[in-house]
Amino acid sequence: MSVEAFHSYLSLEKNYSPHTLKAYSRDILAFEEFCKSEFELDDLKKADYNMIRSWIISLVEAGISNRTVNRKIASLAAYYKFLLKIEAIMANPLAKHKSLKTSKSIEVPFSESEMEIILSEIDYPENFEGSRDRLIIELLYTTGIRRAELIGLRINDVDLHSRVLRVLGKRNKERLVPLLDSTLDYYEVYLKYRAELISGKEVDFLLLTKSGRKIYETLVYRIINRYFSLVSSKVKKSPHILRHTFATHLLNKGADLNAVKELLGHSSLASTQVYTHSSIAELKKVHASAHPRSKG
Fold first, then answer.
1. Distance CA 155, CA 144 (A)
2. Does residue 291 carry a catalytic annotation?
């Protein structure tokens, strides 16, 4: 069974994003090349766990991180699960595989003071790019949307009457996120510059490059990294850290975990709970200072 059939299955039945599809296909084709060169095997249906294990060893010896290796094996596992589903194989060679151990990296959110400086004290250029960059930061921080969701926003996704943002998340799952007054203010400013840029042309996507095309992943990352480098010494300054900051600040202020889960578009609470370490720290401070038995 070809990788193309698996690709179609993920696209049509699972609604995976083009980015995910590309990653899965790349990983499977890389394993296929390894099997051809190392074992003279052309048919992945005949691969066994020893072959997969040899590939894992070669990846680790090449200096690839355990986290990346696990992602590649996850692609392979999904492929073999698909082959099992369509009865192209009788047993999954990865059935008893255990993921490589990885160290958990703690993603430190931006502080409220850092966000205040970014949102209130930084001078943004009074032009199209300045208004766009300011709106991007505002949207990421006040809605908690993912970078891919931000890039995919269309003009009609902003409902000014209801003051909500329609977000198309993973697996094409749609959710509505409330918009703050400040976000709508910067949205209005950006729209004026955007209208001048496209000068009457019909352009569906909301956030554009200065040449009038849809923004892209590396541009969003560069914008966040550039502005936050002015106010923060944190190692990681990325769109995802802003999503992390959004969730952490809400939880610190007493927001319900289930409500934050819905806003983030998570399918389970387990995904949302990774953002609670900072709110737990905040609760400890309150507990230590307010409890009668505290020595603080």
1. 18
2. no
